[in-house]
Amino acid sequence: MAVRSVQEKLQELLDKEEIFALSSTYMRGLDRLEPDLVRSVYHDDATDDRGFFQGGPDAFVDFAMQALAGHKANHHMLGQASIDVEGDVAFGEIYFQAYHRTIEDGAEMDFVVIGRYVDRYEKRDGCWKIAHRSELNDACWSHPASDDWFQSTPNALRGARGADDLSSKKEVLRTL
Questions:
Q1: In whole angstroms, what is the distance from residue 169 CA to residue 176 CA?
Q2: Are 140 and 111 in contact (CB under 8 A)?
Q3: Which long-range contacts (CB under 8 A, 24 or more apart) does 61-68 make?
Q4: Which positions ≥6 away from 119 have C-beta within 8 Å?
Q5: Torsion, CA 158, CA 150, CA 65, CA 37, rounded to 10
Q6: CA-CA distance, 98 to 76, in Å (whole number)?
Q7: pTM of the model
Q8: What is the largest CA-CA distance in the chain?
Q9: E strand or H helix at 37, and its extent?
Q10: R_g over Cα of the chain
Q11: What is the pLDDT along the chain (176 residues), one digit of tens a residue?
Q12: CA-closest candidate to residue 47, choices 136, 134, 137
């Protein structure tokens, strides 16, 4: 086994952080319904395969925005990540949980998916992006929504989509 220099180890850490940030940006784009954020993490010739969807990044962004637009809320959370960097190509397994507040037959439902993204990343012109993403779903369930806490705490701050969410209002946050 070759001994790696401190510089090589630092570069690997920087690469892994940049790669993991792609999934963070991706999740924020889904939750806030910001298609440009989701699209920004893919190379133009990337592929995406979920079994129920297969295609390129533009088609996926359209698919995802249409699928999520009718939801009342979405909350995607990232878990552990295993990222192996091999020069300008890397492979990742990123765990996730995805919560969706949907409306079915007039009733609010909570739909949860847990799974993993199994990805190939490529560094082109000094920039890491997704070259291929597969979504592996390990479990899912749905049940009627229950927001007892929100009913008893009506003044609780709530998340919103896009520019309406507090996370998109840096000028407001500067004054708080």
A1: 11
A2: yes
A3: 61/35, 62/35, 64/30, 64/35, 64/38, 65/33, 65/35, 65/38, 68/30, 68/33, 68/100
A4: 91, 92, 93, 94, 130, 131, 132, 133, 134
A5: 30
A6: 4
A7: 0.90
A8: 62
A9: helix 35-39
A10: 18
A11: 788 999 999 999 999 999 999 999 999 999 999 999 999 999 999 999 999 999 999 999 999 999 999 999 999 999 999 999 999 999 999 999 999 999 999 999 999 999 999 999 999 999 999 999 999 999 999 999 987 777 788 888 888 888 888 888 989 888 98
A12: 134
Question: How many Cβ atoms from other residues are within 10 Å of residue 103's Cβ?
Answer: 12
Residue from 48, 40, 22 nearest 132 by CA? 48
**CATH code for 6-175?**
3.10.450.50
Sequence length of the chain is 176
The residue ranges of DSSP E strands in the chain, in sequence order, are 42-49, 54-55, 73-86, 89-104, 107-124, 127-144
